[in-house]
Amino acid sequence: MSWQDGGCACGAVRYSVMVPPMFTHCCHCSDCQRETGSAFVLNTLVEGEMVRVLKGRPEPVMTPSASGEGQEIWRCPVCRVALWSHYSTRRRKVAFVRVGTLDRPGACPPDIHIYTRSKLPWVLLGEGVPAFPVYYDVETQWPPDSLARRAAIDQAGGT
């Protein structure tokens, strides 16, 4: 049984997230702003193998990243909506699912705001959610059960 399903705008791709998220980022970096055409992106992180395609064939598109290693964004081949991505350090081990493509996006409020140094000045951050000018120390911010899941990913190896 899945935790939540999602899909693209045209309905050609449907997917299922099999487990609750480890953590949800609200990223305000200029790259995310440019790639989404918005002020920020909400990504909820799960084990890569826990995203299952139910319908259609999403396609990976490599985009540049600040690290220089690129980001693999999985998109609907019809409407081109970004569904999830994989970043270089844990390529395909962790899926950064675009919260807005979930059927119930309200179930994924941000756990943290990152790269707020490039936050647009009119975006107001709510109280109670940690905010960092750049990235953050995962060990001090993630809950213990999510850290255990992350450690299991690192021990499993692979791509």
What can you see in these coordinates?
- This protein is α+β, with helices and mostly antiparallel strands and 159 residues long.
- The protein has a single domain, classed as glutathione-dependent formaldehyde- activating enzyme (gfa).
- The protein contains 3 helices and 10 strands; from the N terminus they run βββαβββββββαα.
- The chain has helices at 30-36, 138-141, 144-156, and strands at 4-7, 14-17, 23-27, 41-47, 51-55, 59-63, 71-75, 82-87, 94-98, 112-114.
- Strands 6-7-8-9-4-3-10 form a 7-stranded mixed sheet.
- The chain is globular and about 40 Å long.
- The mean pLDDT is 93.
Which key terms come to mind for this protein?
3 helices, alpha+beta, seven-stranded mixed beta sheet, 10 strands, 159 residues, three-stranded antiparallel beta sheet, glutathione-dependent formaldehyde- activating enzyme (gfa)
Brief synopsis:
This protein is of the alpha+beta class.
Structural class: alpha+beta
Secondary-structure element order, N to C: EEEHEEEEEEEHH
Would you count the extended β strands for me? Answer: 10
The CATH superfamily appears as glutathione-dependent formaldehyde- activating enzyme (gfa)
Radius of gyration: 15 Å
- Uncertain residue ranges: none
Integer tally of domains: 1
Let me know the largest β-sheet: 7 strands, mixed
* CATH class categorisation: Alpha Beta
Across the major sheet, the strand order is 6-7-8-9-4-3-10
Distance between the termini: 25 Å
Walk me through the topology.
Elements lengths: L3 E4 L6 E4 L5 E5 L2 H7 L4 E7 L3 E5 L3 E5 L7 E5 L6 E6 L6 E5 L13 E3 L23 H4 L2 H13 L3
Parallel strand pairs: 3-10
Antiparallel strand pairs: 1-2, 2-5, 3-4, 4-9, 6-7, 7-8, 8-9
